[in-house]
């Protein structure tokens, strides 16, 4: 009888624990797995150039790469052709170095990536660093991308939202999609703001003013 009592008591205890466990499970919310949204493409940089507010200055810089496959280097990165690309050929991080001869104002980088074509070669995490030379570069932007297909705009602004002034920019590919080893970049553009000319800031003349000063004496 004693043993029966023990077993009965144990059974009640187990039932109580099971009941508590069920209650706790009912209180836990059911959450679906969140899928990261794809990186939306930016507008074509040519549209920005047509506004007259920025100018592409990549041709004023000296470009170098940490590595490249023969025939897939700087020329392909800067040829205005979205079908060609730079392909690295070494260990990560993969680096693009952009060096100016004088301190230059830079407002934005535009980079073209195409996950549909490049898959595991597509960058998923990049770092942008600036400085006077290789020895004092500092990271100012880090960007994570999810299956990008199009132009990616990267503003380069200081702490008070002014365009940076720098001698050198370095773009570092820290990781690729699907843990890919080498990377593809199809185009990189570098933009400086266009300063408004003092000409054109004069107020327009009224009709009377125009009539008074239209003749050169």
Radius of gyration: 30 Å
Would you tell me the overall average pLDDT? 83
- The helix content, as a percent range, equals 10-25%
Strand order of the largest sheet: 2-4-9-6-7
| CATH superfamily annotation of the domain at 56-193 | Galactose-binding domain-like
CATH class of the domain at 56-193: Mainly Beta
Give the uncertain stretches in residue-range form: 1-19, 21-34, 197-206
> If helices are DSSP runs of H or I spanning 4 or more residues, what is the number of helices?
5
Shape: globular
CATH structural fold name of the domain at 56-193? Jelly Rolls
Q: What percentage of amino acids are in beta strands?
A: 25-35%
Elements, N to C (H/E):
HHEEHEEEHEEEEEEH
Distance between the termini: 130 Å
Strand segment count: 11
Q: Tell me the major beta sheet.
A: 5 strands, antiparallel
